[in-house]
Amino acid sequence: MSVHFSVENINFNLKEKLRIKKWISEVVKTNGKKLGDVCYLFCDDSHLHEVNISYLNHDTLTDIITFDYDEGDIVSGDILISIDRVRENAQIFNVSFEQELHRVIIHGILHLLGQGDKTAREAKRMRARENEALELWNNL
Fold it and tell me: What are phi and psi of 96, to 5 degrees?
C-alpha cells in the first residue's frame, strides 16, 4: 500500500515526496484508518475541467477532484489536482504555492477519510482538519 504521484499536461515537479508520503500516512493513521493505494495526478486546468465535465457533470474549474475507492478501514483513491488552480489560489489567499499545494494535497485525503465540504458547517470542519494536518506537516 502506498502513495503514488504522477504529472500530466503540465511542467511540475513535486518536492519532498518522501516527507509528503510520511505525512499522508500519519494523517490517515491518526484518523484510525489504514493507508491503501492513493494516486495523485497533478495536471493543468484544461485536463481537470474535462474530468469534471465527463465524470461529475460539472462545467466549472476546480482545484481538486477526489475519487474514493475506500474499502472498510483502508483509505484508497485517485486525487487529481490542478496546479494552475493551486497557483492562482495561492495568490488570492496570499500564501506560498507550497502552502496552498499542501492544503490541497491533504484536502483530498480528508475527503477519502469521509470529510465533506458541501455545507458551510462541513467546510468549516474541513478547514479546521486541514489546519490540524498542516500543523503535523510543520512538525515532521
Answer: -70, 160
**Ordered alpha helix ranges (H), 6-71:** 17-30, 45-56
In three-state secondary structure terms, 79 is strand
Give tens-digit pLDDT for 27-81. 999 999 999 999 999 999 999 999 999 999 999 999 999 999 999 999 999 999 9
| Residue 1: count of CB within 10 angstroms of its CB | 12
User: What pTM, to 2 d.p., does this model score?
Assistant: 0.96
Separation of alpha carbons 54 and 73, rounded Å? 29
Over residues 122-136, the pLDDT tens digits come to 999 999 999 999 999
- Give the strands of the sheet with 34-43, arranged side by side: 3-7, 34-43, 74-82, 64-68
Residue ranges of E strands in the chain: 3-7, 34-43, 64-68, 74-82
Closest to 12 in 3D by CA, of 117, 118, 97, 128: 97
CA-CA distance, 26 to 76, in Å (whole number)? 15
Comparing C-alpha atoms, which of 122, 124, 118, 130 is closest to residue 56? 118
